[in-house]
Write a structure and sequence with these properties.
By secondary structure, this protein is an alpha+beta fold. Helices cover 26% and strands 32% of the residues. Strands 1, 2, 3, 4, 5, 6 and 7 form a seven-stranded mixed beta sheet that branches. It has a three-stranded antiparallel beta sheet with strand order 8-10-9. The protein starts with 7 loop residues before the first helix and ends with a strand.
């Protein structure tokens, strides 16, 4: 059954089943260790979650040199687990040379565990709950990487809020070998929410209610709890979506204003 015809509980059940099947596949395939597939398991599971029929995976897109993660008739899905900037040329090419609807699918770990692995023995130790909690608002800074494409009515975003476990190698500095250690792979455990953002108004919930109509990036940063350069990137992205616009300076800082959307 197509994903968007399912109830959310059914979507959660599909995601959980795919996670179990992927782990079993790895366990019985005779491959050793974590992350030995060409694609990381998070990426593969999301593609299967979007469409279980693998005939629609890795499909070439007419009039382009690109291969989509998932293409179902006139809909293209691109799964991006990392930064968005590397896919900018691809997305712009899709928008310019096809009439397809493009959905960028991005997982955010709102509940996360961390396990440490000895790179020599493969032994796992010290599984702990991470204090870091992702939020839907984390998407905003990433949108800066697709700034030229924002506002196009054929570009959509889908956020998958997940529980996940990060596996890290005990390969760092200091006695515990954790400082500067390398993250090996993120393994999804459960789907907690599935949000599709199709229009600029769908992003309004990410704007703090207490934000004044005329504000600075610093004010936005404090209220949205988005720090440093990410706050500026988020403001620029919301500007490209038509939710913010440049305004008169406030003191020595550049001013911005909120725009109303019908």
């Amino acid at each position: 059954m197509p994903l968007d015809e399912l109830l959310f509980a059914e979507k959660q059940a599909r995601f959980a089943r795919l996670c179990r099947e992927m782990l079993l596949q790895k366990h019985t395939s005779g491959e050793a260790g974590i992350g030995t597939l060409a694609e990381k398991r998070l990426h593969v599971i999301i593609k299967r979650y979007l469409c279980e029929n693998e005939d629609f995976h890795e499909v070439g897109v007419p009039n382009t040199r690109y291969v989509s993660d998932v293409r179902i008739e006139n809909e293209i899905f691109e799964v991006q687990t990392g930064a968005f900037y590397p896919m900018q040329k691809k997305i712009l090419h899709y928008l310019a040379h096809t009439d397809c609807t493009i959905t960028v699918v991005h997982p955010i770990a709102v509940k996360k565990w961390v396990s440490w692995m000895d790179p020599k023995t493969g032994e796992l130790t010290d599984r702990k709950r991470s204090p870091q909690r992702g939020r839907p608002e984390d998407l905003l800074a990433e949108l800066y990487g697709l700034l030229p494409a924002l506002g196009n009515p054929r570009l959509r975003f889908r956020i998958l809020l997940i529980e996940a476990e990060d596996f890290r190698l005990l390969s760092g500095r200091k006695k515990n070998r954790k400082l500067g250690a390398k993250k090996y792979e993120r393994i999804p455990l459960a789907l907690l929410d599935d949000l599709t953002l199709s229009r600029p108004c769908d992003f309004v919930f990410m704007i703090p209610e207490a934000l004044p109509d005329h504000f600075t990036v610093k004010q936005f940063s404090d209220l949205a709890k988005i720090r440093g350069r990410d706050a500026y990137s988020a403001v620029r992205a919301l500007c490209a979506l038509g939710l913010f616009a440049p305004a008169d300076p406030i003191g020595r800082s550049m001013g911005w204003k909120k725009l109303s959307i019908s």
